[in-house]
Model the fold of this input.
Amino acid sequence: MTTEGVKTIKTVTVPAIELRQATKRYGAGATVLDGIDFKVERGEFVSIIGPSGCGKSTLLKMVAGLSPCSDGVIAVDGMTPVNARQITSFIFQDATLLPWRTVRENVGLGLELDGVARDRREQKVRSVLELVGLGEVADRFPRQLSGGMKMRVSIARALATRPQVLLLDEPFAALDEMTRDRINEELLKLREEQGWTALFVTHSVAEAVFLSTRVIVLAAHPGRLAHDMAIDLPFPRTGETRMSDAFEEKVAEVSRALRSVSVAGARA
Done:
């Protein structure tokens, strides 16, 4: 059979997240974010860092559909952020657990709100609790948990709905360094198992480098994209990764980029 005259149809892959000239202003006030342009491809883990006041958390809320663009376009899997909420989960700075609900009930909250049947909901909750190592505390209340355990419950709740896109706003900032490092490693294992795309806000350069395939550095006043840096360290990443020369060199490189925008902002 001849293939002459047969046209090849190319499949166009839509980015997981795309921002085109995304701008945010509050009323007649100053511009918070100005003309942000970048894409996040499926399966990437992209961290956003920058000086205080550069609009990192605002940008994340715009991608989540919690705060609209003033100008420009944001698309999540080709949809508006509001229409993409079914495939997106958000992890906030605080665990935001309901104190009157058990761990099991907190993790199943999103599934319950989505109308998932009880048997199916309980199955999914059991599975995700085992995934994050919390199966033995399923019937405890938040007051009975450590800070690290509360954050793992928050992660489990976000993952229970099997999101395609996970948005994280400095969720580990209040944890001690050892707990933070351990949860970072657990988060990457979960990403490997579930395959979601992540957009992560942090103040920690070392955390951004350890977790990410790319790090975006924002400059302030107004917030704008200053650097988009590939993190080419191999996966899986473990405690040994943090001890490597390559990791230290990449942390130094990103730190210099962050310092350059911070100094420029101070002079402005």
Q: What stands out?
A: The chain has nine helices and nine strands. The mean pLDDT is 91. Strands lie at 17-25, 31-40, 45-49, 71-76, 88-91, 165-169, 197-201, 214-219, 224-230.
